[in-house]
Amino acid sequence: MSQIIFHIDVNSAYLSWTAVEQLKNGAKVDLREIPAIIGGDQKSRHGVVLAKSPAAKRYGIRTGEPVANAFRKCPNLAMYPPDHRMYREKSRMLMEYLRTYTEVIEQVSVDECYMDFTPIADRYYSPVDGAAEIKDGVKERFGFTVNIGISTNKLLAKMASDFQKPDRIHTLFPEEIQVKMWPLPIGDLYMAGHSSVEVLKKLEINTIGDLAQADPKLITLHLKSHGRVLWEFANGHGTDIVQSQPEEAKGIGNSTTLREDAKTIEEVRPVFEELAQSVGRRLKKAGKKAGMVSMEIKYYDFRTLSHQAQLEKPTNDPKILKETACSLFLEVWNGAPVRLLGIRTSKLSDESEPEQITLFEWEPPKEPDEKHKKLKRAMDELNARFGDGAVVKASMMPKQGNTSQKKGLGQRNGSRGEKNDEREEL
Question: In this structure, are residues 63 and 51 in contact, taking their beta carbons and an 8 Å threshold?
Fold first, then answer.
């Protein structure tokens, strides 16, 4: 029997969970049935929309837009602040319930997970019947609804769950790709960020089907390794491994939570600069070089995304780590405000190991000349002796009226697997 994977996603999670809690406490109105949003400050009407009701969507209100814009579109809009403690509790209850079916659950955010349905498939007439039991059980037990996507791999299951909402079940098996997925706009493809979509549209690739039928060499030429990934996704290629337990991490990384969400690449670059400096120092202190760099984003609504790249040559150079992270960010960022950024390194090797040199390879950012190498070594020695940040480059000195402290970087070092202070506890 082929693998059967479910992607289970709570419909408008923050708003649904707030509505359920209010009804439980005696509210007479269900937020899901009126124009309502979660997000921002009720008095100042500042902030962005984190979740919206179907009625609010009919007014043209979009997730991520400023609250002030939402009120201009619908003056009688109901708005409530987020309650992340309550959301974590609802998430915990949902996952506990799903694990009564199978332990093979991979939770990927506070409101979504993958389930390997294969081990229990023989209990049901069809996967759709099994999904219906789970979907209806969630609604009866908790009062909110979910969408369930069904396929043979995680990518297609995820795409299926994003079809018509709410409270729906959709299949997207390989034989259904051309009919159900290829006609969709290219922006609907998983991992197709704003920057990548703009490049593809310039190549006259407007639908997922256009990308699937394009020459992968052309796509790779314009979008490098991420272009190849998107081409494979457009053709339905994805992993069928549901990882119920996180892998033992072997790497060095750092992440930082911003008190003010970053909205432009100009705000993001200095953050990656500081993270790369920190990670590079720790790699050197451990006598290691990294062969893989991973970039992590947590959006304003707590959804997380990571993207990684294999380096042609292992490195611990902060400049290469920073430029790689920025490149990865631009490949997948969807333009929404960002509250957390991270750089992780893996595939570590000893600094003293010889490097294999090839004739035909992508040329990474150039290593510094001998003069700059000596300067870097001197800076590293002083920072090691007197503490990180004792000596910094002039370009990284805080500018008057625009310091990193003003930006509010709540930074915490840690190897891969350690939690940042602001991370969601799922």
Answer: yes
226: helix, strand or coil: helix
Element housing 213 (H / E) = none
Answer whether 96's CB lies under 8 Å from 108's CB. no
How many beta carbons lie within 10 A of that of residue 54, not counting itself? 16
Residues 141-178: b if buried by 16+ CB within 10 A, e if exposed: ebbbbbbbbbbbbbbbbbbbbbbeeeebbbbbbeebbe
> Residue 326: phi, psi to the nearest 5?
-65, -40
Q: Which helix (H) or strand (E) holds 306?
A: strand 304-315
Position 297 pLDDT exceeds 80: yes
* Cα–Cα distance, 65 to 50 (Å, whole number): 9
Q: DSSP readout, 292-339?
A: EEEEEEEETTS-EEEEEEEEEEEE--HHHHHHHHHHHHHHH--S--EE
Q: Could you give the CA distance from residue 231 to residue 119 in angstroms, rounded to a whole number?
A: 31
122-126, 188-192, 251-255, 414-418, range with the lowest pLDDT: 414-418
- Over 80: is that where the pLDDT of 44 sits? no
Which tokens is 413 given?
Answer: 């070092």
Q: What is the pLDDT of residue 356?
A: 55
Q: Which long-range contacts (CB under 8 A, 24 or more apart) does 75-78 make?
A: 76/35, 77/35, 77/36, 77/37, 78/31, 78/34, 78/35, 78/36, 78/37
Quote the CA–CA distance of 256 and 274 in Å, as a whole number.
10
- pLDDT tens digits for 219-239? 999 998 899 999 999 999 998
Q: Considering only the C-alpha atoms of the chain, give the largest distance between any 2 of them, rounded to a whole number of Å.
A: 72
Q: pLDDT band for 246, please (50, 70, 90 cuts).
A: low
Q: Residues, the chain, total?
A: 426
Instruction: Identify the H or E element spanning 161.
Output: helix 154-161
**Could you read off the pLDDT of 85-119 as tens digits, one per residue?**
999 999 999 999 999 999 999 998 899 999 999 99
207 DSSP β-pair partners: 185
Rounded to 5°, angle at Cα 108 from 115 and 419: 135
pTM, entire model: 0.70
Residue type, 226: H
Helix (H/G/I), strand (E/B), else coil: 123: helix
Amino acid at 202: K
Residue type, 73: K
Catalytic residues, which ones? Answer: 112
List the Cα angle 147/150/154 in 5-degree steps: 100
